[in-house]
Amino acid sequence: MAGKVYIVGAGPGAADLLTLRAAALLRAATIVLHDDLVPAEILELCPASAQIINVGKRCGRHGRSQEQINALMVWHAREPQAQTIVRLKSGDPAVFGRLGEELDALRRAGIEFEIVPGVTAAAAAAASARLTLTDRRAASALVMVTAHNARNESLSRTMFEPARSTYAIYMPGPDYAATVNGLLESGQELATPCAVVSNAGRANEEVRYLTLAELASMKGIPAPAMLIVGEVAAEHSPRRDEDLLSKISSEMRDPYHHDRFPIHPGLG
Ligand code: SAH
């Protein structure tokens, strides 16, 4: 009997933003391999008998390499007594979480696995900042990018139609000035609005609404933080598509406008 690996999204860090499926799997887990960003509150759902291993990169001298994490999953899945292994990753496990490498290792070893999605930081940050990433009046694309990628490519090489896009930038710090430079190179302007959200969805969340110019000189933004860039991130008086705005506001003044058309025109 081989064990099974559940790759589970822990959400942005508040236990009540965990899915019910994730909670049920944590309660049934015998082995849990988790990242640094997963809070104690969520790990407390695991049975006392479960073996809980922090495989986080920031875990000092105990930090595990990606190869070691892969090896741990495979080793536990091959234990003679079948284990329920939960690989717990922050947010959604498939968004900037090196999931590709872990899936390759499991596939190569012939280990059964299942993926349980989670609330990704971009969604949590948008909710905290009370904005919509895809406001139809201001954005027709949502691009999730990382300021730290494996190929060391600059931000400007990964961008897309700057004026009509929202960028949800993971790992934007600590060098925000460099991130802003990358955005400027990609066609954004110093006046482009942005929202930087630290600890989204947690009790200590902080939201700042700024322009890129202001962000470049901002100090002391706590990690983890998400950066949302684009017109959707303007807190007040967003510069939006004026035609659409006036059409939408006339619908708001008269929401039953269409009901006054005769239902049977021929009889009316
Ligand atoms: N898989 C995760 C992302 C992992 S990369 C997800 O889907 O959310 C780690 C980055 O995610 C952090 O550097 C930060 O940019 C962002 N992040 C994770 N949790 C966050 C939170 N609660 N608030 C703000 N940003 C967060």
Supply the CATH architecture of the largest domain: 3-Layer(aba) Sandwich
Shape by Cα distribution: elongated
Measured between the Cα atoms of the first and last residue, the distance is: 74 Å
Heterogens: S-adenosyl-L-homocysteine
Number of strands: 10
Oligomer: single chain
The CATH homology group name of the largest domain: Tetrapyrrole methylase, N-terminal domain
- Please report which band the strand proportion falls in: under 5%, 5-15%, 15-25%, 25-35%, 35-45% or over 45%: 15-25%
Radius of gyration of CA atoms, rounded to a whole number: 23 Å
Top CATH class of the largest domain = Alpha Beta
Outline the low-pLDDT stretches: 237-241, 260-268
How is the CATH topology of the largest domain named? Cobalt-precorrin-4 Transmethylase, domain 1
In DSSP terms, counting alpha (H) and pi (I) runs of 4 or more, how many helices?
A: 8
Secondary-structure-based class equals: alpha/beta
Strand order, sheet with most strands:
3-2-4-1-5
> What average pLDDT do the residues reach?
87
Total count of domains: 2
H-E order: EHEHEHEHEHEEHEEHEH
Task: State the share of residues found in helices, binned by percent.
Answer: 25-40%
Explain this structure.
With 268 residues, the protein is α/β, with parallel strands linked by helices. The chain folds into 2 domains: 116 residues, Cobalt-precorrin-4 Transmethylase, domain 1 (3-Layer(aba) Sandwich); 112 residues, Methyltransferase, Cobalt-precorrin-4 Transmethylase, Domain 2. Helices cover 26% and strands 20% of the residues. It is built from 8 helices and 10 strands. The strands form 2 sheets. A 5-stranded parallel β-sheet has the order 3-2-4-1-5, sandwiched between helices. Helix 3 packs parallel to helix 4. The longest helix is centred in the first third of the chain and has 12 residues. Bound molecules: S-adenosyl-L-homocysteine. S-adenosyl-L-homocysteine (SAH) binds next to helix 5, strand 8 and strand 10.
